[in-house]
Amino acid sequence: MNLEQSQIELITKIVAEKLQSAAAPKACGDGIFENMEDAIQAAYKAQRELFGMTLEFRKQITNAIKAELLLHIEEIAKLGVEETGMGRYEDKVIKNRVAIEKTPSVEDLMSGVFTGDDGLTLLEYSPFGVIGAIAPSTNPSETVICNSIGMIAAGNSVVFCPHPGAYKTSNLTVQYINKAIANVGGPKNLVVTMVKPSMEAVDTMMHHPLVNMLCATGGPGVVKAVLSSGKKAIGAGAGNPPVLVDETADIEKAAKDIISGCSFDNNLPCIAEKEVVVVDEVADYLIFNMKKFGAYELKDAELIHKLEKLVFKADGALNRDFVGKNADYILSKLGISVDPSIKVVIMEADASHPFVVEELMMPILPIVRVANASEGIDLSVKLEHGLRHTAMCHSKNIDVLTEMAHRIQTTIFVKNGPSYAGIGVGGEGFTTFTIAGPTGEGLTSAKSFTRRRRCVLVGGFNIK
To answer: Phi and psi of 242, rounded to 5°?
Structure first.
């Protein structure tokens, strides 16, 4: 059979298209892939496209992401509670909103300059390329939101590995982000993830040669893993934030702020108040006011011991069944029925009690008495375990506030306010849910995901 040239060309085109289709990444749409290799390859291609675009266009992309996500806050928050069984819907709405509205974009990338007899030097921020990011179950959408905005603003693409217990929430957020990018004509697959996470996928991502930087938001194990990868890594780890109250504080306000901060999303944020250290002469009045603002005090030693057995497993590990649960649910397991308006379970404890020294991430708040503010600072520093995460202090004594801030060296230090003021909820400053104490970046933003580069012009542009 003799084929005409036009027929040969048509057959060649069909075969080429089929081969190209077979070699294409197996995407499920909107940045969701069936395997990690395909996700990384797609993100690499997207980042190369983004790198050739202007800062102004990056700003358009992040603005579009924010506008799109604002339409879906309630949906994402609802799914987060339903999927994980942790936290409070109304607080997740707040967390998602602040992540959208107060995460900085390209305005964070302020260039610097030196001029002198030898010429002019520019200091500018350049992207790493493809960033591999691990998201937690405690903030599954919030972390994806603030990381995506900051990383894209910095010129990167990002491959997410969500927590297995919250991947539906993280993936839905990724889909909305990609929809927003497509709406303004941005590169496809700037933000990618997998249909379902796995340890194999995480390992592939961490060691892939096209992934230039890692960012882990989670517990000590995952942070240690990324820091051992051999790549540039940002680690946002655990905290055990103490709150100190001295005799000069506005006790009524301190009580309200502490309960508000501790109960926020059922104590899931690592910034939240985990233990109270209070000067003895005002301790009773503080407890009285805490109960006015939604705390239930456990006084019976047997019940406190029973609660300890519920919260901790026999091997000393935290019982995840109670993480992020409502206070009334926790009390019900002790046979105590209370109104849902009860937000926090409080009790007095000594400084060595497991409730005091361990990060619980549930609305259980131990209270430790001290003789004076100096002793309180000493104990607060000890209980923070050198994690350098977050601490609070309620005092009108500037010397106490200054000394504690100096001694405790936390990334966030909130004075006379609830813990969440430290991430921009009712406090000044930008928001992030990746607070990198272990690696020193602190509250991460766009410039955290860049390389600082120096461009030197010798002998030129010196007009002094």
So the answer is: -90, 155
Q: What is the per-residue pLDDT for 9?
A: 60
Q: Are 141 and 433 in contact (CB under 8 A)?
A: no
User: Which helix (DSSP H) or strand (DSSP E) does residue 253 occupy?
Assistant: helix 251-263
Res 206: pLDDT: 95
pLDDT for res 383: 98
Cα–Cα distance, 65 to 322 (Å, whole number) = 34
Q: Is the pLDDT of residue 23 over 50?
A: no
CA atoms within 13 A on the CB side of 290: 29
Provide the 3-class DSSP secondary structure of residue 133: strand
Catalytic status, residue 270? yes
In order of start, what are the domains of the chain with their CATH numbers? 26-237+444-454 (3.40.605.10), 242-428 (3.40.309.10)
Provide the 10 A C-beta neighbour count for residue 224.
Answer: 14
Q: Which residue from 24, 396, 351 is spatially nearest to 189, judged by alpha carbons?
A: 24
d(CA 249, CA 53): 52
Q: How far apart are CA 68 and CA 181, in angstroms?
A: 9
Strand pairing class (295-297; 412-415):
unpaired
What does the pLDDT read at residue 91?
Answer: 98
Q: Please give the average per-residue pLDDT across 284-308, as a whole number.
A: 97
d(CA 454, CA 464): 21
* Angstrom distance (rounded) from CA 447 to CA 109: 6
- Residue 8 and residue 21: Cα distance in Å, rounded? 20
Q: Catalytic: which of 161, 270, 393, 455? A: 270
Q: Are 110 and 452 in contact (CB under 8 A)?
A: no
As to burial, measured by CB atoms within 10 angstroms (0-12 exposed, 13-18 middle, 19+ buried), residue 464 is: exposed
Cα–Cα nearest to 394, from 255, 261, 283, 241: 255
Per-residue pLDDT at 460: 79
Give the relative orientation of helices 55-70 and 142-153 as an angle to the nearest 10 degrees: 160
